[in-house]
Design goal:
By secondary structure, the protein is of the alpha/beta class. It is built from 14 helices and eight strands. Strand 7, helix 13 and strand 8 form a beta-alpha-beta unit.
Length: 312
């Protein structure tokens, strides 16, 4: 059947050198439902993962947290974003300096993104940007550049015994106000949120006391450094881990956060499996805080490692 269709009109574009399972799946996709026999269905089952990819299995895009190239960004934002897109990154996450942009400059940045075919997945913000006074500006800028998540990058200088309650309240209030604008709010952890305070990890408090509309953006490197298990955390919080900072970390103190993606202690395949099955991940972000090479070279090497691991 396959050899016959390959030569006929239904087989146009089916390459003979493709694996048989792939060719079976492609043939079945081109057949009318009435003509698919029981034998054909068995052939489709044999296609396995190849068929699932062709029938629309979700693909998670990869972006870059631009803090990774902060010095280059400061010197030439437009040129740096162009270089990142040329490497093959599909999106970016701008961090706090973006908050000083004028709306007209934000429109220039959006035009650049559109011209390059990349997206702004999210932005990192200091805690004050989610206050009632500053949130309208954050909403305006994020809408212009096409971002979907306004992420609190840290809990800031809020002090006192009610520290984490204040943070949770601020996230909940911001989440209500951004929802009408088509945006969502998130919180990004550092190692401190995984270190117990009075017997409980602060991130556990935030997870339990914030709306499910609040994304818990998981930073893998800091989670590992604090001695926590990122896979277990993802599995314990279904649907909340909508983005992940793919930052590695080495147990070698001479390397630490200088480790490139997949060259540290993180069990990436397990992390990806949990993120996509349970966590609800919508996009991944490479972050390279430090490096053994110049910043642009680090993020290019990490991208290559990511692609290699995902294709394995």
């Amino acid at each position: 059947m396959i050899s016959r269709l390959r030569a006929g009109p239904h087989g146009a574009g089916i390459r003979p050198e493709a694996p048989r399972a792939v060719r079976c799946a492609m043939v079945l996709m081109m057949m009318s439902p009435d003509s698919i026999s029981r034998r054909s269905l068995f052939a489709l089952a044999a296609a396995g993962p190849f068929a699932s990819k062709m029938f629309g299995a979700k693909r998670i895009p990869l972006g870059l947290e631009l803090y990774s190239v902060r010095n280059e960004l400061k010197q030439d934002l437009m040129g740096t974003v162009r270089a990142v897109a040329k490497m093959g990154y599909e999106g970016v996450e701008f961090f706090s300096p973006y908050f000083s942009w004028t709306p007209s400059y934000a429109k220039e940045v959006r035009k650049l993104q559109d011209d390059l075919g990349i997206r702004c997945f999210s932005t990192h913000n200091d805690s004050s940007c989610l206050t009632a006074e500053k949130l309208p500006r954050a909403i305006e800028l994020n809408q212009i550049i096409g971002s979907k998540f306004i992420v609190m990058a840290s809990s800031g200088d809020i002090k006192g015994s009610d520290h984490w309650k204040i943070v949770a309240d601020r996230l909940n209030q911001a989440a209500e106000k951004t929802k009408a604008a088509g945006l969502r709010v998130g919180y990004h952890n550092h190692d401190a949120e995984f270190r117990p305070v009075d017997g409980k990890r602060p991130l556990e408090f935030l997870a339990a006391n914030t709306s499910k509309d609040v994304m818990l953006q998981l930073d893998i490197g800091t989670c590992l450094e604090a001695g926590s298990d990122p896979v277990a955390w993802i599995e314990q919080h279904p649907g909340r881990i909508r983005s992940i900072h793919c930052k590695d970390w080495s147990r070698d103190p001479k390397i630490g956060y200088k480790a490139l993606f997949s060259e540290g202690a993180a069990p990436w395949k397990k992390i990806f499996a949990a993120s996509e099955k349970t966590g609800g991940v919508e996009f991944y972000l490479i972050e390279q805080e430090e490096g053994l090479y110049p910043a642009m070279e680090c993020v290019e090497r990490s991208l290559a490692n990511f692609k290699k691991l995902r294709s394995a």
